[in-house]
């Protein structure tokens, strides 16, 4: 890195000394880099404050505060956007291009310049007023979606959805025309990924899932005991126990209830995960595991870059690979339950005291097409995501009328999963994403699921006795491996390069499909 050559050492004689001296940035370049870092830190700080306000709105804020909160978040979004598109940022980036080209591409400084240039080049195309309006619209739509879902009233939500789609189309229009406009939205969540790439991967997955689901859907696994009276108090204690068991630094995490679970926070020592408690099921346990994976990613970013844009996640797909790994590869695996099931039975002795481990394990892994994505089993989950990905492309390209979405949703649920949707709350209104304007997000759930298996299998090769460690309730090796291979790099690399550095290859559906066949191709048993 520049600066390491000086260090008080005497100059080396000859040409090498001259080369070393020339590799040092000039004072003006060093000052430009310092200025860029200062601006990057401000941009990141404004985003963290906005994230905190979103967390507050979705957990404890009085619902009537949505309009004023929309104004607050919109203001922060506009300030951050204006900071990013400031011509001075562009000038600094231009001035630093020679330095960037001289640096090791893996260095933090090179990565920061590269990432900020990408962000700046995209942001300068978007008017600050549009960025602010999209943020306001998301905040103002939140209580509308909650009421619409609670009353299963799509007509109530439709104006908010129309506004969200119109804003996203205006956003797309800020960029050069493309064959697939959806690519512009997808790039915000999964950089350097095209719809055609996702379509190809999903087609491979769908071809395997459809016959596998048909094979397994009429199984006789008894899961009736999972629908019982599970008081919320013990569920809260259980979720905290799991998060503490998986591991984190003291006094840095909290768990709160919300309608649609998510993870948030303002930094590596402020991790806020949420879950949803159902009084008649244990789904909160798995959603807590899922959000733990998200939280751990943020928790284990290197402290010296956490305040900068490169200290964020590489992509939403990589983020989802972390959450799905902890939820499924750990949380639905037999080694974990050999350790943890006695603790669960102790929390709910009346409900589970007489249920043997093999019955419980089979029940939590039962394959059964269902209505709700976040409660779906591992096998059918993929079709939930594929449906949404395809529908979003239709929305963006104007191939469907928004008022027809409930009907189209219900028809595709019947076609893909063979389930009849009884109402919009269990159908098109179930997810929070469209109310928040997050159109382009959904595919990352399945992309992340695919990558989670690649990560797990590589980890199993390199961490001795991985299953045995989990069975003993030891999770430090998992945290450390993920921290070193994924979390520490933050956003220094695009998602597929992040994955390649971790496992040696880019995304590949074959390990994921082989995993499903191994686990579910025969009856699940302990």
List the helices and strands and how they pair.
Blueprint: H1 15-22, H2 27-59, H3 66-85, H4 87-95, H5 97-102, H6 108-123, H7 128-151, H8 154-172, H9 182-189, H10 195-216, H11 232-246, E1 253-257, E2 263-267, E3 270-275, H12 283-299, H13 316-330, H14 334-347, H15 349-352, H16 357-364, H17 378-396, H18 405-417, H19 443-462, H20 466-471, H21 476-485, H22 495-503, H23 509-520
Parallel strand pairs: 1-3
Antiparallel strand pairs: 2-3
Helix pairs in contact: 2-3, 2-4, 2-6, 3-7, 7-8, 10-17, 10-23, 11-12, 12-13, 13-19, 17-18, 19-23
Notes on the structure:
With 526 residues, the chain is mainly alpha-helical. It is 62% helix and 3% strand. It has 23 helices and three strands. It has a three-stranded mixed β-sheet. The radius of gyration is 24 Å and the shape is globular. The relative contact order is 0.11.
Gross geometry: globular
Helix % is: 55-70%
Strand order of the largest sheet: 1-3-2
The helix count comes to 23
> Whole-number radius of gyration?
24 Å
Which structural class matches the secondary elements? mainly alpha
> Low-confidence segments, ≥5 residues, pLDDT <50?
1-23
Rounded mean pLDDT score: 93
* Separation, N- and C-terminal Cα atoms: 53 Å
Give the SSE order as H and E letters: HHHHHHHHHHHEEEHHHHHHHHHHHH
- The total of beta strands comes to 3
Main β-sheet, in a few words? 3 strands, mixed
| Percentage of residues in strands | under 5%
């Amino acid at each position: 890195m520049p600066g390491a050559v000086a260090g008080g050492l005497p100059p080396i004689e000859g040409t090498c000394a001259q080369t070393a001296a020339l590799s040092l940035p000039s004072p003006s370049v060093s000052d430009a880099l310092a200025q860029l870092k200062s601006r990057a830190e401000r941009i990141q700080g404004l985003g963290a404050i906005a994230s905190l306000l979103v967390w507050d709105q979705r957990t404890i804020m009085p619902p009537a505060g949505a309009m004023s909160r929309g104004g607050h978040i919109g203001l922060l979004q506009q300030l951050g956007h204006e900071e990013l598109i400031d011509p001075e940022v562009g000038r600094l980036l231009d001035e630093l291009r020679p330095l960037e080209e001289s640096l090791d591409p893996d260095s933090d400084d090179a990565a920061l310049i590269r990432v900020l240039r990408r962000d700046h080049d995209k942001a300068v195309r978007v008017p600050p007023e549009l960025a602010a309006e999209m943020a306001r619209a998301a905040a103002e739509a939140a209580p509308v979606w909650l009421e619409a879902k609670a009353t299963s009233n799509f007509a109530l939500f439709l104006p908010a959805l129309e506004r969200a789609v119109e804003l996203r189309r205006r956003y797309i229009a800020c960029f050069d025309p493309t064959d697939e406009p959806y690519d512009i939205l997808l790039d915000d969540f999964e950089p350097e990924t095209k719809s055609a790439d996702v379509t190809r991967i999903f087609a491979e997955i769908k071809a395997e899932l459809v016959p596998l689901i048909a094979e397994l859907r009429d199984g006789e696994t008894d899961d009736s005991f999972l629908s019982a009276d599970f008081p919320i108090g013990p569920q809260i204690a259980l979720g905290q126990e799991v998060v503490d068991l998986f591991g984190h630094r003291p006094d840095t995490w909290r768990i709160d209830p919300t309608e649609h679970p998510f993870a948030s926070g303002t930094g590596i020592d402020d991790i806020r995960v949420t879950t949803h408690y159902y009084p008649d099921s244990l789904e909160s346990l798995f959603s807590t595991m899922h959000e733990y994976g998200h939280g751990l990613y943020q928790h284990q970013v290197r402290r010296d870059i956490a305040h900068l844009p490169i200290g964020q996640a590489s992509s939403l797909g990589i983020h989802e690979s972390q959450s799905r790994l902890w939820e499924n590869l750990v949380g639905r695996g037999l080694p974990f339950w050999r350790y943890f099931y006695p603790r669960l039975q102790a929390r709910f002795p009346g409900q589970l005291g007489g249920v043997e481990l093999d019955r419980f394990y089979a029940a939590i892994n039962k394959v059964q097409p269902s209505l709700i994505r976040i409660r779906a089993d591992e096998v059918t989950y993929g079709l939930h995501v594929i449906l949404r990905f395809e529908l979003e492309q239709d929305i963006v390209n104007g191939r469907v009328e928004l008022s027809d979405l409930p009907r189209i949703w219900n028809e595709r649920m019947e076609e893909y999963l063979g389930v009849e949707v009884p109402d919009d709350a269990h159908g098109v209104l179930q997810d929070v994403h469209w109310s928040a304007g997050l159109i382009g997000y959904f595919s990352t759930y399945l992309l992340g699921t695919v990558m989670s298996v690649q990560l797990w299998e590589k980890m199993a090769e390199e961490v001795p006795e991985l299953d045995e460690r989990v069975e003993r309730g030891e999770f430090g090796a998992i945290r450390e491996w993920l921290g070193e291979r994924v979390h520490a790099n933050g956003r220094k690399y695009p998602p597929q390069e992040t994955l390649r550095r971790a496992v040696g290859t880019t995304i590949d559906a074959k390990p994921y499909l082989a995993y499903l066949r191994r686990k579910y191709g025969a009856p699940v048993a302990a």
